[in-house]
Design goal:
This is Peptidase M50B-like. Keywords: Membrane, Transmembrane, Transmembrane helix. InterPro entries: Peptidase_M50B-like. Pfam families: Peptidase_M50B. By secondary structure, this protein is mainly alpha-helical. It has one domain. Helix content is about 75%, strand content about 5%. The chain has eleven helices and two strands; from the N terminus they run H-H-H-E-E-H-H-H-H-H-H-H-H. The chain has a two-stranded antiparallel sheet. Strand 1 and strand 2 form a beta hairpin. The longest helix has 25 residues. It is globular and about 50 Å long.
Length: about 240
């Protein structure tokens, strides 16, 4: 039985297209299934809040802290000018950050640099840990970082690539669901202080247009990243 499993694994990993397709289908199920989505959404929230934090720092704002909550919501607090390009970019960055991280991961997998993706994510999580201001946030970062470290340390290069392909697919697909969820919340009169609504008040551009823009960006990255993964020669 063990020999059959090893043989099946070897055949799967030698076939990049099949492995990437299976990883994509698994990620789709993980995102669409409520039972798996609820805990795994924390990964998306980490990427989302990390995007806010990075752009806040790049735009010259002071990062005061990040909170990750058990309901999978998050909050990044920074100080600086209350209006202007820096604040707009900081508010805008959260949703695209998830998809762009998935796109970057997809590219690294296709050029046989999965280990760079793993250690890069670990380094980003370590930096983010410094800014976390609540216990659940610390736990989320440690669990996520621990899982990535285990893959980077114990898995073979082929399985590292497959795990990174799975993570890339999950971010590419999972980056779209929170946008849809926010749209439904807003249609019921909830989430009045969402990123989209804050941008609307600051720029005069309707919140719905920000949602459409985020969703279109997510679709473009999904198509591009998915194409890279499906056409890679091997995993």
């Amino acid at each position: 039985m063990d020999e059959l499993v090893r043989e099946w694994s070897a055949q799967l990993l030698d076939s990049g297209n099949a492995a990437a397709l299976i990883a994509g289908l698994v990620s789709l199920v993980l995102v669409l299934n409520r039972t798996t989505w609820l805990p795994l959404r924390n990964v998306v929230t980490i990427a989302h809040e990390g995007g806010h934090a990075v752009v806040a720092l790049l735009s010259g704002r002071k990062l005061n802290g990040i909170r990750l909550h058990s309901d999978t919501s998050g909050l990044t607090v920074s100080t600086g000018k209350a209006t202007g390009p820096g604040m707009v970019l900081t508010l805008f960055a959260g949703y695209p950050a998830v998809s762009l991280l998935g796109l970057g991961g997809a590219w690294l997998v296709t050029v046989d640099l999965a280990h760079v993706m793993l250690w890069g994510c670990i380094a980003l999580l370590a930096a983010m840990l410094i800014a976390i201001r609540n216990a659940y946030g610390v736990l989320s970062i440690l669990v996520t970082g621990g899982a990535l470290f285990a893959v980077s340390w114990f898995a073979t290069p082929a399985w590292q690539a497959l795990c990174c392909a799975l993570l890339s697919w999950f971010l590419l697909i999972g980056g779209l669901r929170p946008i849809s969820e926010l749209s439904r919340k807003r249609s019921r009169g909830r989430a009045a202080n969402s990123d989209a609504d804050q941008l609307a008040r600051m720029t005069g551009v309707p919140a719905g247009l920000w949602l459409v823009l985020w969703f279109l960006l997510g679709l473009v990255t999904l198509v591009l990243g998915g194409t890279w993964l499906l056409l890679m020669p091997q995993v």
